[in-house]
From TrEMBL:
<dbReference type="Pfam" id="PF02190">
    <property type="entry name" value="LON_substr_bdg"/>
</dbReference>
<dbReference type="GO" id="GO:0006508">
    <property type="term" value="P:proteolysis"/>
</dbReference>
<keyword id="KW-0378">Hydrolase</keyword>
<keyword id="KW-0645">Protease</keyword>
<protein>
    <submittedName>
        <fullName>ATP-dependent protease</fullName>
    </submittedName>
</protein>
<dbReference type="GO" id="GO:0008233">
    <property type="term" value="F:peptidase activity"/>
</dbReference>
<dbReference type="InterPro" id="IPR015947">
    <property type="entry name" value="PUA-like_sf"/>
</dbReference>
<dbReference type="InterPro" id="IPR046336">
    <property type="entry name" value="Lon_prtase_N_sf"/>
</dbReference>
<dbReference type="InterPro" id="IPR003111">
    <property type="entry name" value="Lon_prtase_N"/>
</dbReference>
<feature type="domain" description="Lon N-terminal">
    <location>
        <begin position="11"/>
        <end position="204"/>
    </location>
</feature>
């Protein structure tokens, strides 16, 4: 387990719209751009093997894209290489962070100076959601999956711990990037579950296909 003292002040970041990583979640990624291949190679030489996943956002009226203020760092825990030199990796979520500033340098990928302090609880045990009504939640989820023509292993969903269930669905469901960011920034597991419920209910009410589909 990584401790707060082990978290570096500067980390490489991978800006990817719609990609959400949460603490203790697992995110598979397919890496093929040369700058990100270099990032993976450099990452594997570091003790923590940390990469920050962060979503870019468009500045209204300018077309300019900037990084969101908050992202989540993951430890590289799975790696394989294809015959044509691409990497298939898995990141395991460690902690969210707030960007202080982007660091200029000689790497082909982006790096940021980050603050971990606001999210110290991410390093602890799995979070609990005392108000979680599993039956009602799974009923809504079944209707959402049917409407979105998604499939899942329902037996594993019924048995999963609340944090694993809520965070996995937050990462996997086809929400818009701004909705994914809201799920990432939720201050507690119960708030994330409430946000997730709101997004699914909005989709079921026909709240605009491009609002929920990527």
């Amino acid at each position: 387990m990584i401790k707060a003292a082990d978290l570096p002040a500067i980390i490489p970041v991978f800006p990817l719209p719609g990609a959400l990583l949460l603490p203790r979640g697992r995110l598979p990624l397919h890496i093929f751009e040369p700058r990100y291949l270099a990032m993976i190679e450099d990452c594997m030489k570091t003790p923590g093997r940390l990469i920050g996943m962060i979503q870019p956002r468009e500045v209204p009226g300018t077309g300019e894209k900037r990084l969101n203020a908050i992202g989540c760092a993951g430890r590289l825990t799975g790696f394989s290489e294809t015959e044509d030199g691409r990497y298939m990796i898995t990141l395991t979520g460690i902690s969210r962070f707030r960007v202080i500033e982007e660091v200029q340098g000689f790497t082909p990928y982006r790096r940021c100076n980050v603050d971990w302090a606001p999210f110290s609880r991410d390093l602890g045990e799995a979070e609990q959601d005392r108000a979680f009504d599993r039956d009602a939640f799974l009923d809504l989820l079944a209707r959402y999956f049917q409407a979105m023509q998604l499939s899942s292993d329902w037996s594993s969903l019924k048995e999963a711990e609340a944090e694993l269930l809520i965070n996995s669905l937050s990462m996997l469901c086809p929400f818009a990037p701004e909705d994914k960011q809201a799920l990432l920034e939720a201050p507690s597991l119960s708030t994330r579950r409430e946000t997730l419920v709101t997004l699914m209910e909005f989709a079921l009410r026909g709240g605009g296909e491009d609002e929920v589909m990527q």
